[in-house]
Amino acid sequence: MPLILASASPRRRDLLAGCGIPFQVIPAAIDEHPLPHESADTYVHRLALAKAEAVARRHPRQVVLGADTTVTIDGCLLGKPPDVDTGRRMLTRLSGRPHDVVTGVAVMRVESPGELRPHCASVVVVSRVLMRRFSEVTIEWYLATGEPADKAGAYAAQGLGAAMVERIEGSYTNVVGLPVTETLGLLQQFGITVP
Q1: Could you tell me the pTM of the whole model?
Q2: Is the pLDDT of residue 65 over 90?
Q3: Active site residues
Q4: Tens digit of pLDDT for each residue in 32-60?
Q5: Which one, of 28, 32, 30, 25, lies nearest residue 55 by Cα?
Q6: Bridge partners, residue 165, by sequence
Q7: pLDDT digits over 96-137, tens only?
Q8: Do residues 65 and 16 touch, judged by C-beta distance below 8 A?
Q9: E-assigned strands of the chain?
Q10: Can you say whether the dihedral through the CA atoms of 65, 71, 75, 77 is positive or negative?
Q11: What pLDDT does residue 1 have?
Q12: 14 CB-near residues (< 8 Å, 6+ apart)
């Protein structure tokens, strides 16, 4: 395979597969906690690079794609909710308000495991999402579906959560978890193109 996706995200896998590029999935095991006072842009960029490098160091001469997505509102990062109560608080906070979905993407190739400066290209993409105002009943119904459990910001714009989204400004695929246009541009720098 010419490409390794360093992510276990089924959304990223589906978006990349939709481009027709062959790849294998090897998730990176890294600490994904934000650092104190870390901005959303810095956070997702750091994690995308860390994921790509963790896998690239174990697979020299392979092109590795790492990505990370977060939701940010009022300067707070909303990752994947660890429990239903956190998901409820996130959705309540997002109701009727705009927020940003921020994704960092990094593509890397390491020629040898000890290489100090691997070939790397990266980008951070921001999309603005306006949520409809929704009731507590809607929030409880949505939480009961289980869909919010592994989604940044506790919703999926490509799933049942689409009914909660009023408008997206910018890349829709970024909101899903991988900005396809920008990702393809990075991959092209490594000689990987859409068939």
Answers
A1: 0.92
A2: yes
A3: 68
A4: 999 999 999 999 999 999 999 999 999 99
A5: 28
A6: 131
A7: 999 999 999 999 999 887 777 889 999 999 999 999 999 999
A8: yes
A9: 3-5, 24-25, 63-73, 76-78, 98-109, 119-131, 165-169
A10: negative
A11: 64
A12: none
Residues facing 105 on adjacent strands:
67, 123
Amino acid making up residue 65:
L
Walk me through the domains of the chain, giving residue ranges and CATH numbers: 3-188 (3.90.950.10)
Percent of the chain with pLDDT over 70: 99
Q: What's the angle, vertex CA 34, arms to CA 170 and CA 36, rounded to 5?
A: 115
In angstroms, what CA-CA distances link 144 with 83, 91, 114, 136, 164?
Answer: 12, 13, 48, 12, 15
Structure tokens at 159: 């799933």
